[in-house]
Write a structure and sequence with these properties.
The chain is built from eleven helices and no strands. It has 232 residues and is mainly alpha-helical.
Length: 232
Amino acid sequence: MQAGIVMGNLASAIGIGTEDAALVAALKAGSEQAFGMLIAQYSQPLYSLIARSLQDPADAADITQEVFIKVFRSIGSFHGDASLRTWLYRIALREASNQRRWWTRHKRPELTIDAPNSAEGEDGEDAMCLSGMLMDSGNSPYDHAAQSEMKARVEAALRELPEAFRTVVILREMEGFSYEEIGEIVDAPAGTVKSRLLRGRAALKQILLDQGLTVRELNRPVPATVFAGGTR
């Protein structure tokens, strides 16, 4: 009883949920069981994020392992300024970015980040966005084949985006983070996140069109399960 009260007070004090606070406290105490729980809960989501962030998804397993090593070593520095999930994603993206720099030999000229974009609607939403492509559309063999092909094309197109754009598109459309949470992860204001997201969506649409997709194909819904589990 007393332990529960103390943990609740701790959660309130550092601004994170009671469940996260309990897990963090156990991790800081060196609990192997808590570390195992952390891996079980976050290994697949972080793997998916990293795989989509790298030019070569084959490196994702090693980078994911490195992320958890970094988490284990630096958990003492986690003070609850952001949620545990946000903190983990921040580390994962940093490691993926480091790996991408090693992998990259030649980069195409990047779009100007945060430049104005006048092609959005009233709410700043581009006509084509991944959330619209991830709706359920059926389960016929043809549908599954089309979904598989679309997944491969989108995954490939994402890797052609400038890193800043790709990151916010993945975090928003595939991971479901809010603008504020993404801002915490990438250390940018929510307005900057929105700008990068709009530019990223527009760039992604153009890449897919350049690959030969039609506007009709871009607007064809694709089940969210297509992207479940990443590219592993």
